[in-house]
Amino acid sequence: MADEIAPSQYLTFSLDKEQFAVDIGKVREVLEFSSVTKVPRTPDFMRGVINLRGSVVPVIDLRLKLGLSRTEATIDTCIIIIEVETSEERLVLGALADSVQEVVELDPKSIEPPPRIGTRVNIDFIRGIGKRDEQFVILLDINRVLTDEELRDVEGATQPPPPPRPQPSPTTMAEAR
Questions:
Q1: Looking at residue 174, what is its pLDDT?
Q2: C-alpha span between 57 and 67 (Å, rounded)
Q3: Among 30, 122, 143, 177, which residue is least crowded by beta carbons within 10 Å?
Q4: 169 vs 165, 175, 176, CA distance in Å?
Q5: CB-CB contact of 13 with 20 (8 Å)
Q6: Contact 166, 152 (CB under 8 A)
Q7: 3-class DSSP state of 170
Q8: Taking the chain (177 residues) in consecutive chunks of 10 residues, what is each chunk's mean pLDDT?
Q9: Quick check: 113 and 98 in contact, CB under 8 A?
Q10: Where does the chain have alpha helices with state H?
Q11: From CA 154, how far away is CA 57, in angstroms rounded?
């Protein structure tokens, strides 16, 4: 398993006092937390959208997506702008993190495969468990954190609504009778 993990540089961040990391090649930038505009009828883990230099970027709460409690904004809260590959395209989205630590280089020998937890628990989004300074770092496969259906929902939140259908005027309704 360790040989399959080619990238050796990861951006580390914390979620609920646990250390996580993503391949630095998937990270575009890290932003300070700012206001997020909530989009109605989106999944709970979808916190809303932000304006990133004129582009609408969806923001997800990684804590909620991973089954943890909701991220509460603090002075350390960040939005990690990442690129996710779907079966059809690449999607840029923001992921909330409690704090971002640093970019680290992990030796593939220090990375273990994800633990087998049973057949009912899906851990496909975990690339491995890295060991660093006597601490574990959970390496996320960011392309698998969200399902294709969830990605379509997130991407749909950034699209403008369809134009309203024209309503017949009272005169045309009377003429139709």
A1: 55
A2: 23
A3: 177
A4: 12, 10, 11
A5: yes
A6: no
A7: helix
A8: 61 94 95 92 92 93 92 94 85 95 89 74 82 88 84 69 60 56
A9: no
A10: 62-65, 142-145, 148-156, 170-176
A11: 9
For residue 40, the Cα-to-chain-centroid distance in whole angstroms is 18
Cα-Cα-Cα-Cα torsion 156, 82, 76, 14, nearest 10 degrees, comes to 110
Plot region of 67 (φ>0 → left; ψ -120 to 50 → alpha; else → beta): left
Nearest Cα to 30, choosing from 75, 118, 92, 95? 95
- Do residues 11 and 100 make contact, with C-beta atoms less than 8 angstroms apart? yes
Q: Report how far residue 45's alpha carbon sits from residue 157's, in angstroms, rounded to the nearest whole number.
A: 13
pTM here is: 0.80
**Cβ neighbours of residue 70 closer than 8 Å, sequence gap 6 or more:** 61, 63, 64
CA 98-100-101 angle, to 5 degrees, is 130
Q: What is the CATH number of domain 2-158?
A: 2.40.50.180
List CB contacts of 131: < 8 A, sequence separation 6 or more: 110, 111, 112, 137
